[in-house]
Amino acid sequence: MAPLTLEQLQHYDQQDLLAHKRAEFTLPEQSIYFDGNSLGAMPSCVLQRTQDVLARQWSQDLIQSWNSNQWIDLPLKVGEQIGRLIGAGSGQVICCDSTSVNLFKVLSCALLMQPERSVVLTQQGNFPTDLYMVQGLSTLVGEKRCQLLEVPEHELVQALNSDVAVLMLTQVDFRSGRLLDIQRLTQSAHDQGVLVILDLAHSAGALPVELDAWQVDFAVGCGYKYLNGGPGAPAFLYAAKRHHAQINQPLSGWMGHKAPFSFSPQYQKSDGIEQFLTGTPAVISMSVLDAALGVFSDVSMQQIREKSLGLTSCFHQLVQQQAALAELTLITPLKPEQRGSQLAYQHPQAYALCQALIKRGVIADFRAPDILRLGFTPLYLRYVDLWHAVEILTDIVASQEYLKPEYAIKHKVT
Amino acid sequence: MAPLTLEQLQHYDQQDLLAHKRAEFTLPEQSIYFDGNSLGAMPSCVLQRTQDVLARQWSQDLIQSWNSNQWIDLPLKVGEQIGRLIGAGSGQVICCDSTSVNLFKVLSCALLMQPERSVVLTQQGNFPTDLYMVQGLSTLVGEKRCQLLEVPEHELVQALNSDVAVLMLTQVDFRSGRLLDIQRLTQSAHDQGVLVILDLAHSAGALPVELDAWQVDFAVGCGYKYLNGGPGAPAFLYAAKRHHAQINQPLSGWMGHKAPFSFSPQYQKSDGIEQFLTGTPAVISMSVLDAALGVFSDVSMQQIREKSLGLTSCFHQLVQQQAALAELTLITPLKPEQRGSQLAYQHPQAYALCQALIKRGVIADFRAPDILRLGFTPLYLRYVDLWHAVEILTDIVASQEYLKPEYAIKHKVT
Description:
The structure is a homodimer. By secondary structure, chain A is an alpha/beta fold. The first copy, chain A, has helices at about 5-15, 45-60, 65-70, 75-85, 100-115, 130-140, 155-160, 180-190, 210-215, 285-290, 300-320, 350-360, 385-400; strands at about 25, 30-35, 40-45, 95, 120-125, 145-150, 165-170, 195-200, 220, 235-240, 330, 340-345, 360-365, 365, 370-375. Chain A has a seven-stranded mixed beta sheet with strand order 4-10-9-8-7-5-6, sandwiched between helices. Chain A has a four-stranded antiparallel beta sheet with strand order 11-12-15-14, covered by helices on one side. In chain A, helix 2 (about 45-60) runs antiparallel to helix 10, helix 5 (about 100-115) crosses helix 6 and helix 11 packs parallel to helix 13. The longest helix of chain A has 20 residues, at about 300-320. The first copy, chain A, is globular, with a radius of gyration of 22 Å. The two termini of chain A are about 35 Å apart.
């Protein structure tokens, strides 16, 4: 393969059908941002929306905004927008709470639906909060009703048996960026009478997801990564319509009631996906997410996926062209059907390397114990950015600049 | 008693030690706002803060803001500020999630701490979401481990026995505005080995609360009423330090972990109040609340309480001066030690009356089945506002203006 050149990358940018989307984001001048998988960049439109929510809707219309500015409809409205990005037909996605809280809801539902089964099966190395939520639920209801079983990914199918209530998967592994074949795994689970819960934290907005077509039972995901909803944006929850009638989620707050403003003492769940609501919706942050989702209105997930694969391919090719970077070991699968929208490199000094990169304006992140993680967001990353980033990375590695003591200082958040 | 005059009210405003606080809020020109107990008015300082969070912290500093702009410390920082308003010493209050979700956490903890007891005792007519959360928990763990018992307020003490795990109280009743004697009730509960959970939705920021002194075990409350944190602001949770070591809250997400960024597969709770965190903090809305709490920095809860009692007294006196208003029946206790910061009037046409008032710029709310509810927020309500509001109310009632068909139309949110 001929070496990839800067000119070639410039050419890719010229041909990029998503190139115009970058102008819809406000990005720092001097940085190349590879962390949209931790915190998406800010769509510029959120400034005006927030101003309107604060200075008009809240301060002037006050309590009446629940009706007049449709605050009460936001969870469903935002849910519908997200639904379109993850292959969910209408009335199955709602925006609320955090990913973790939503996971607790759907885990509880799935276990209550399968009273003879108690195992929550997941892949080893799944995102900690997913594991912790199962552990917390287990503390509450007892090991006889909820126990966590973690197995390596290749053992998932054989571990599916009549003790397993739920197969809980994260579609894209947060460390390696490995992408699971959800359709196949869901089929295997259903063959054994097992319900499937999907964590879409690193999928929604990054690659095509087909929840309905794959017949996934429940899914949760986060608003602040590839959906660009801002720090700590509200999360979302999907529940397949076929389950709506028979489920009972335990975080049954007034917003999930069939008639919240009847103020009746007995809980009666909403018929639809609103039954997953709990407390009062976070209007300000949900409005930011609502506005941010507008950037997806004129693009398809297929276009995004194609550019994402292009970006990750090119980046790794550039890394391979640099002899100095041989000490970085790619742990992300190279096959397109096995990788999400990130690349993860192992390096014994990954933390220091990441800090040195950040100092030079290349924003990546570190995941313990030794992973340098780079997220690729097709809506605002350019092909030429890859060239400059790899140049800086090469310089830092070759010069051993990352060994400076300042880069060893551990911050609270990595 | 001599009739209250407009001049007298103007005089009260001149003497009001809190009069200057109104200038710190952005309020609509033509309205008199009696709904700060549903949605507090907007402190003007939140505009600049939000601009900074979006345009600098998010869009420019991006993921680094978790460290550089102390996003990671917000839940504790905001919790500390709220703690000062509710009599909680340092390290016992955290800002997170919604009131309902937080209630689920502390209910679960309290039941797990008392495995021989299963009853959650509460007053009849408690806020629905509080009842629903107990019902949801009961669905999950079974009636043998969690069952709700509602009794009239005057029967609470005699209902305390060795089956009761938790006495769950809302300090100020959302309908009547009745204020409970928490110190006495907590003492009675503790005498029977019962833990106390307090809902401070209508107390925090409205009147003095002394959680530590009263030896309350757990409390939750909301950020968007008297704390003026904006629509759907994050809520808060108090847990007395004496319980921190032995509690296990089931919504155990990564933010409650002792070392979230070690990404270890086993949950190990934080030692302190951070153990009640679940998912990623809602940075934007929590920053709004953080800024909004600044308006409390130079006032005492005692000053607020005095003005609150003055406002409610004067309002009801003005109502009593109007013969036309005799058809409104006050259901709020008149004794200062028995009322919060609201007045509730029963009227057969309360909904229509409320709509007619709103149309004329007097913003109150309706609570089913027949209550016109008026909240009094001492930081921005003036004594003269009461005069004008009662004049308008009198006119609407005397003219039967509220019988117009347009005021019968039910909105989604009341």
